[in-house]
Amino acid sequence: MSKLRGRSQVIRRPRRLRSSEAMRRLVRETRLSVDQLVYPIFVKPGQRIHEEITSMPGQYRFSIDLLANEANEIAELKIPAVLLFGLPEEKDELGSGAYDDHGIVQQAVRAIKKAVPDILVVGDVCLCEYTDHGHCGVIRGESVENDESLEMLARTAVSQAAAGADVIAPSAMMDGQVAAIREALDEEGFSKIPIMSYAAKYASAFYGPFREAADSAPQFGDRKSYQMDSPNIREAIKEMELDAEEGADILMVKPALAYLDVIQAARESFELPIAAYNVSGEYSMVKAAARNGWIDEERIVREMVTGIVRAGADIVITYFAKDLARKLK
Ligand code: PBG
User: Fold this and answer.
1) What is the pTM of this model?
2) Residue 137: what are its φ and ψ, rounded to 5°?
3) 3-state secondary structure at position 55
4) Which of 35, 96, 239, 297 maximizes the CB count within 10 A of its CB?
């Protein structure tokens, strides 16, 4: 046996499978598909409004009359679902715009389902965009009252379902919200509507740009008494267990990038589909760096979303959905 032969038997050569793009495609372990994507949309009152969100370049607030156009574009890109956020005409203490049958999101759901019946419309169920104090529930003094908020959240879910929403996504982080919403939906004849629960939602600085987009920053204090403390992962499993028991059909982890371990743990602990929300701050940081010419946006986006999927997410909610869909077509 020659020396050379001996050595070639010893060296393992993983590089063989990286030799060309065709080879790499063949052995790729994680594949992105447009089927996994959900695109968030912001809606506001008015006519012919298509205004760029300063903190989120490339994302817009739409008035209802321009939604059909946008929904058609999203459907043409084969993105299966949109997630709706509304900026109401007026805010009040009890967030009544959230459960108004003619509220902004209810109108938006009707407009999108009319224009593109096949697209899934997911309704974000929370009060923070609708309350004058900007908290996700009802307040007494400076405290966000859990059980009183459940009724408002349940009414919001029912009114979105009645408008035609296909999926209900509660994001207020009130204890028992999934059970309260499930019960109300079932009572009102919406037992077929699934709940995608923001189960492990952390109190995160990554929501900064969204709060400008949706005008939903809390007017006093912060959300730390209801959203999760970021160092915790066992608590995330507990939150997800509770939501699964309460009847959630899909469990969400939010944000995504700083919580890939939570996504992985969710995937390993549950059989339900796992969604991850690639949030506004994760979007805006990429946009800002790309605008400065410091990173290659297209490659960064692909690498980021691949990481989220590799960690275990089945569904990725992302402001990059349209950009990605164009490349994945
Ligand atoms: C509503 C809600 C928020 C986001 C989604 N739903 C804001 C918050 O909790 O403060 C954030 C989404 C994003 O940052 O992209 N509660």
Assistant:
1) 0.96
2) -145, -175
3) coil
4) 239
CB of 279 sitting under 6 A from ligand 1: yes
Nearest-CA residue for atom 2 of ligand 1: 171
Taking the C-alpha atoms of residue 108 and residue 105, their distance in angstroms, rounded to an integer, is: 5
Could you tell me the two tokens for 247? 């009847």
CATH code for the domain defined by 31-328: 3.20.20.70
- Strand 50-53, strand 56-62: pairing: antiparallel
Tokens read off for 12? 């393992």
Question: CA-CA distance, 319 to 36, in Å (whole number)?
Answer: 13
| Nearest CA, atom 11, ligand 1 | 207
Q: DSSP string of 53-86?
A: ETTEEEEEEE-GGGHHHHHHHHHHTT--EEEEEE
Instruction: Name the residues annotated as catalytic.
Output: 201, 254
Q: Are 256 and 319 in contact (CB under 8 A)?
A: no
What is the three-class DSSP state of 275? strand
Tell whether the model's pLDDT for residue 95 goes beyond 90: yes
Q: What pLDDT digit, counting tens, does each position of 21-73 carry?
A: 999 999 999 999 999 999 999 999 999 999 999 999 999 999 999 999 999 99
Q: What are the extents of the domains in the chain?
A: 31-328
Average pLDDT of the chain, as a whole number: 96
Residue with tokens 């204090």: 221
Kindly state if the Cβ of 284 falls inside 6 Å of ligand 1: no
CA 188-130-92 angle, to 5 degrees, is 105
